[in-house]
Amino acid sequence: MYEEHRHLTWMLMLLFLTGVLCNMWKVKHQQRLICAVKGSSVIFLCSFQNPDNQTVRVLWGHLQPATLKARLISSSLRTLFTRFQYIGNTYHNCSLKIHQVECSDVGRYFVRFNTMSNRPREENAPVLKVVDLTIFMSKPSVKEAIREGDSVNLTCMNSCDGGKISSAYTWFKNGEPLHEGAALYLRNVSPTTSGNYTCSLKTHLGSTSRVLGIDVEYGPRNTTVLVQPPLGADPGSDFTLICSSHANPPRGELYVVQNSCR
Ligand SMILES: *[C@@H]1O[C@H](CO)[C@@H](O)[C@H](O)[C@H]1NC(C)=O
Ligand SMILES: *[C@@H]1O[C@H](CO)[C@@H](O)[C@H](O)[C@H]1NC(C)=O
Ligand SMILES: *[C@@H]1O[C@H](CO)[C@@H](O)[C@H](O)[C@H]1NC(C)=O
Ligand SMILES: *[C@@H]1O[C@H](CO)[C@@H](O)[C@H](O)[C@H]1NC(C)=O
Ligand SMILES: *[C@@H]1O[C@H](CO)[C@@H](O)[C@H](O)[C@H]1NC(C)=O
Asked: Do 28 and 120 reside in the same domain of the chain?
């Protein structure tokens, strides 16, 4: 009876020690809540405590919030998906870089060693939020088109900034650099203002952009009138007046003048 009790005590102690040793596999993430703009890159800085400085295989998993399914996305051994790059090592650094962040990358991330079931103690396991770059346009009338002489303001934002305009933005018009800063004021617009305006957000990990087409409407100009058949060619017949001009949206007008009596 006494022997049996001692045996049990040893067993419990062994289990306890195994538990303690297993718990020495600790992973520490630098930041828990991480926000990234769609199309940009993000780094999850991570370190782990490795009791014997053994070489391990580090695995990264992603828990998709919609399905609650875990998927293996990266391994220190080999690349599984090019967008998920393991940038750590095999003895203390478990950092991961995600390139070209997509909306489906949202959710919780976790680290495992050697096998997916080997669960270490994790501190600050990262949760990724993905937002889009947004262009706000302020113009005289929300519903109506932009007309000659109007003033239009374009503001580029991303909600990772928490509404603050702090990121480094550059505006391009048809690919040409136009302005540094989040807000672009287009005063007294003319037909030449029309074009594609790109807002580009630059971070230390790369850049991402969004395009908005601006189309300035203007009334007919350079109007020409063509008479067919030419006047005097056949006096008394009907003739057609073709009125052509440059306008946006294009407007062409055709008048048929009945000249003869019927
Ligand atoms: C742990 O191992 C790595 C390579 O296997 C080595 O570079 C590093 O110096 C070792 N660290 C310690 C504390 O022994
Ligand atoms: C881990 O590796 C990343 C990428 O190389 C590096 O930026 C980071 O400073 C490293 N962290 C530590 C604790 O060594
Ligand atoms: C554009 O921004 C300027 C400066 O903030 C402001 O004075 C103007 O009223 C704005 N125009 C429109 C159409 O929102
Ligand atoms: C603007 O972008 C649209 C759609 O990509 C393209 O069809 C158009 O040619 C572009 N306009 C200019 C002036 O680059
Ligand atoms: C009107 O015609 C002139 C001369 O041909 C040309 O330079 C100008 O661009 C035209 N204006 C428009 C709005 O097409």
From this structure: yes
Nearest alpha carbon, ligand 3 atom 4: 185
Task: Give rounded-to-5 percent helix, strand, coil for the chain.
Answer: 10, 50, 40
Q: Model confidence over 165-174: pLDDT tens digits?
A: 567 899 999 9
Q: Among the atoms of ligand 4, which is closest to the Cα of residue 211?
A: 2
pLDDT-based confidence at 143, cuts 50/70/90? Answer: confident
Same domain, 113 and 137: no
Whether the pLDDT of residue 260 is over 50: the answer is no
Total count of domains within the chain: 3
Q: Residues with beta carbon inside 6 Å of ligand 3?
A: 138-140, 151, 153, 185
Ligand 3, residues 144, 152, 185, 214: which to mutate, most atoms within 8 A of Cβ? 185
Domain extent at residue 172 = 132-214
* Distance from residue 152's CA to the centre of ligand 4 (Å): 19
Domain shared by 148 and 67, yes or no: no
Strand order in the sheet with 26-29: 46-49, 26-29, 121-123
Cis amide linkage into residue 229, ω under 30° from 0: yes
209 close to 132: Cβ distance less than 8 angstroms = no
